[in-house]
Amino acid sequence: MKVYSELKGRTAVITGGSKGIGTAISERFGKENMNVVVNYHSDAKGAEEAVALIEKNGGKGVAIQADVSSEEGVQQLVDAAIDNFGGFDIWINNAGMENRHETHELPLKDWQRVIDVNLTGVFLGTKAALDYFVKNDKRGNIINMSSVHEQIPWPTFAHYAASKGGVKLFTETVAMEYAARNIRVNNIGPGAINTPINAEKFADPEQLATTTSMVPMQRIGDPEEVASVAAWLASDESSYVTGITLFVDGGMTLYPAFQGGRG
Ligand code: NAD
């Protein structure tokens, strides 16, 4: 594992850090000897475990409850970073949710909640981070957890796909708007990653095989493989990179049905 020495002592805010990809990034940032504000929504125990992983690996952490779809909640994360670590350098909008419905039966409240968390939450987190970076005349770094479904349509998950498609153009727009101020904004687009959001699906051998067949590398990914990309985007090694989605998907966005030269 590469450790980016310049990250030592820098502070990151990670939303939805109580499990899955958010916990893996927290652990990795602990290994980078960083300070991390680990946001959670309802799983306090998971967030405390993430903090323990950060501290075991040489970083510092604090767990903060907040709903990313609320402006007050996001402000609490800004305040926690300032109170505990004197500010922040990196903001990661990772929190997300999904549920399956055929679109003609998709309840408005489910549509609204997914958009509120996955898209409005990214907007609110980004807005708060930009405001802090601009007012403190700091160069800044924002990383949004998008999905392969910012590009690949996903029947029965229309609200999820709409939210991630929104994140794509939101990120590109904000990256352009703030590039001259040295604030970088990028997306990570995970494919099929082994986290609690997929636990039920991957526990069923048939569904696991179906998913794996959509991945040219023919395996699902580990959250640590997303965390290592987050560390690179957070580091100065990616200093000229802004406005992209970096897919971490074993090739899922490459039309795997054509693998083998069929078609
Ligand atoms: P997960 O369900 O394991 O974790 C999601 C986290 O978001 C949880 O900690 C949850 O509590 C938190 N969260 C949900 N609503 C929240 C809210 N209102 N406020 C604060 N936190 C909230 O999922 P994961 O797989 O770790 O997903 C992380 C991100 O990666 C999500 O944005 C997801 O859409 C994206 N993603 C995941 C995969 C995958 O295969 N796992 C693929 C593509 C994209």
Concise account of the structure shown:
With 263 residues, the chain is an alpha/beta fold. It has helices at 20-31, 44-56, 71-85, 108-135, 158-178, 199-203, 205-212, 223-234, and strands spanning 11-14, 35-40, 60-65, 90-93, 140-145, 183-190, 245-248.
Our count of helices gives 8
What is the N-to-C order of secondary-structure elements (H for helix, E for strand)? EHEHEHEHEHEHHHE
Mean model confidence by pLDDT: 97
Shape from CA axes? globular
Assign the CATH class: Alpha Beta
**Unreliable runs, pLDDT <50, ≥5 residues?**
none
User: What fold name stands as the CATH topology?
Assistant: Rossmann fold
Rg: 18 Å
Instruction: Compute the number of strand runs.
Output: 7
Largest sheet: 7 strands, parallel
| Total tally of structural domains | 1
CATH superfamily: NAD(P)-binding Rossmann-like Domain
Second CATH tier, the architecture: 3-Layer(aba) Sandwich
Name the beta content range: 5-15%
Small molecules bound in the structure, each named once? nicotinamide-adenine-dinucleotide
Helicity, in percent? Answer: 40-55%
How far apart are the first and last residues' alpha carbons, in Å? 39 Å
Strand order within the widest beta sheet = 3-2-1-4-5-6-7
The class by helix and strand makeup works out as: alpha/beta
Structure description:
This protein is of the alpha/beta class and 263 residues long. The protein has one domain (5-249): 3-Layer(aba) Sandwich (Rossmann fold). 43% of the residues lie in helices and 14% in strands. The protein has 8 helices and 7 strands. It has helices at 20-31, 44-56, 71-85, 108-135, 158-178, 199-203, 205-212, 223-234; strands at 11-14, 35-40, 60-65, 90-93, 140-145, 183-190, 245-248. The protein has a 7-stranded parallel beta sheet with strand order 3-2-1-4-5-6-7, with helices on both faces. Helix 1 packs parallel to helix 2 (44-56). It is globular and about 55 Å long. The chain binds nicotinamide-adenine-dinucleotide. Nicotinamide-adenine-dinucleotide (NAD) is lined by residues 15-16, 18-22, 39-41, 43, 67-69, 94-97, 117, 145, 147, 190, 192-193, 195-198.
